[in-house]
Design a protein that fits this description.
This protein is mainly beta and 515 residues long. The protein has a domain of 154 residues. The protein is built from three helices and 35 strands. Strands 1-26-25-24-23 form a five-stranded mixed sheet. A four-stranded antiparallel sheet has the order 2-35-34-33, with no helix packed on it. A four-stranded antiparallel sheet has the order 3-4-5-6, with no helix packed on it. The chain is globular and about 55 Å long.
């Protein structure tokens, strides 16, 4: 049954109140950690800093309110022993090179603990735990100097060869340079360069000119994807360029070729482009966004294609097909015969794969903007827009994914949220806050508060415990990051502040179940 729930982008209250009950009606207390930052927050990374198995927080920020110049640092908040909170104040601070444009935390050096890697216009710099800065390599990067004190987290950091040590992909003018450690005692070194133009993104960019700022979130695409595309058990790197899908296959020594091993167009993309050209007039619209993920758990990368078609002049005609193509034993996809087809009205954000019900199979979460109401939104006839969220459980019926959702909910989102945030993540379903194996729902309420509703299965049917919501109030914050910080099986919610100059921009909130 579909329910309608109002959500909101941000709250203004800093007090907290909560109560949560399990299925056996025992209360589940929540804990709140308030982490104070010396200055305005710029970026947040999560990584085990001291090797104790718990995830720690690395927060980049201005050194002090109103500090002039690029006076930035990264503060480390170490997780305490089991059952203890993070300290309110940082454990230590690390310096930031004045030309740094992005950073990432990881075990990039033989020294004990984790390090920070700073991406700069002409070099890659490592900061050890003692604050020592060391230039790893000189680079011909395409970065400019940081703008507006920015220092975002660089996410192209994967353990590609499965040795437990992260590799780092650094953008350079020739494409992407791969830095890796050849072993526990080795330092980070450049081993490969992939020829991928910096402006290349994975899949054709979603056209948002006529859809305007309300759907800007759908244009945020990754540049490279890590996936096993040839079924050899090693992660490869994939880009979608002008000639098609470019596959850079990982070698046995963990390196990659400069040029792709294969590069060929995908039929699903070519068909959409042809369909758009065949449309009437200049209003014809057809677009495909791509993703790679192991949907059925066989170790091979499957292809997900989100296809939107319609007439841009008539928003109510826009509709979306979510296609899933499973890889065969050679890692190929039969594009003429999709293994799952889901039809949606309106425009959908990128699909989210997660194990919602804890059965070991990935389920699919889709969202759909009600485009039949979009004309009223543009004319300011209404102050809200409806986003429908649907969960498709794998294996709940015959076949890979059911044609109809196992669970559906509507979110009434104020236009102010759509304009600022692109409407993305009005609800999230990735967090198992109470650790019972079923994902919970986290959403903003119309009054600015936060609502956490436990997911549950009753006689195999999915749902949410609407009678016992957890009601919280939190300051201005972005949608939460979900992470099990202490390995207890229950996820924590990490709230980063909006980037402004007020006091709320100097506080991090972490919420989780108390043990």
């Amino acid at each position: 049954m579909k329910r309608s729930i109002a959500v909101f982008a941000c709250g203004v209250v800093l007090a907290f109140c909560w109560r949560c009950t399990r299925a056996d009606d025992r209360p589940v207390p929540l804990r709140l950690w308030v982490l104070r930052l010396p200055g305005t927050e710029l970026g947040l990374d999560v990584c085990d800093a001291d090797g104790d198995g718990d995830a720690d927080l690395w927060a980049a920020h201005l050194r002090a309110p109103g500090a002039g110049g690029l006076d930035r640092q990264v503060s480390l908040y170490l997780r305490g022993p089991a059952g203890q909170r993070f300290p309110n104040e940082p454990s230590r601070g690390l310096p930031v090179p004045p030309d740094a444009c992005a950073f990432a935390a990881g075990d990039f050096d033989p020294a004990p603990g984790a390090e920070l890697a700073f991406l700069c216009p002409g070099r890659l710099v490592l900061a050890r735990g003692d604050g020592e800065l060391r230039t790893v390599a000189a680079l011909r990067g395409f970065f400019d100097y940081p703008e507006d004190f920015a220092l975002p987290v660089w996410t192209m950091r994967w353990d590609l060869d499965g040795d437990g040590l992260p590799e780092l992909l650094v953008p350079v003018r020739e494409g992407y340079a791969l830095f890796k450690r050849s072993g526990p005692k080795a330092s980070l070194a450049r081993v490969s360069t992939l020829r991928v133009e910096p402006q290349v993104k994975f899949g054709p960019a979603f056209e948002t000119d006529l859809l305007g700022r309300f759907l800007s979130s759908t244009s945020r695409l990754r540049r490279l994807v890590a996936a096993d595309v040839n079924a050899d058990g090693r992660l490869d790197l994939v880009a979608y360029r002008g000639k098609g899908l470019a596959r850079f296959l990982q070698r046995s020594d963990g390196s990659f070729p400069q040029q792709p091993d294969r590069e060929e167009p995908l039929a699903v993309v070519a068909d959409a482009q042809a369909q758009g050209k065949r449309g009437e007039g200049t209003e014809a619209f057809a677009n495909v966004r791509l993703g790679l993920a192991d949907v059925n758990g066989d170790g091979r990368a499957d292809l997900l294609a989100t296809k939107t078609v319609g007439e841009l002049g008539l928003f109510e005609t826009l509709r979306t097909q979510q296609l899933v193509f499973l890889a065969d034993e050679e890692g190929e996809w039969d594009e003429e015969h999709p293994d799952a087809v889901i039809h949606l009205k309106g425009v959908s954000d990128d699909p989210v794969l997660l194990d919602w019900d804890g059965d070991g199979k990935l389920d699919l979460v889709l969202s759909s903007y009600r485009m039949d109401m979009f004309s009223n939104v543009r004319r300011a006839v209404t102050e809200t827009m409806t986003i429908s969220y649907m969960i498709f459980r794998q294996g709940s019926t015959s076949g890979l994914l059911p044609a109809e959702p196992s669970l559906a909910l509507d979110a009434e989102v104020p236009l102010s949220q759509l304009e600022r945030r692109g409407g993305i993540r009005a609800m999230i379903f990735a967090a198992d806050v109470d650790g019972d194996g079923v994902r919970d729902r986290v959403a903003r309420r119309a009054d600015g508060g936060l609502e956490v509703v436990r997911g549950r299965l009753e006689d195999g049917e999915p749902g949410f415990d609407e009678e016992h919501p957890v009601l919280l109030s939190v300051g201005r914050a972005n949608p939460p990051r979900v992470r099990d910080l202490d390995g207890d099986g229950a996820d924590e919610l990490i709230f980063e502040p909006f980037a402004d100059a007020g006091p709320s921009a100097r506080v991090l909130h972490v919420i989780g179940v108390a043990r």
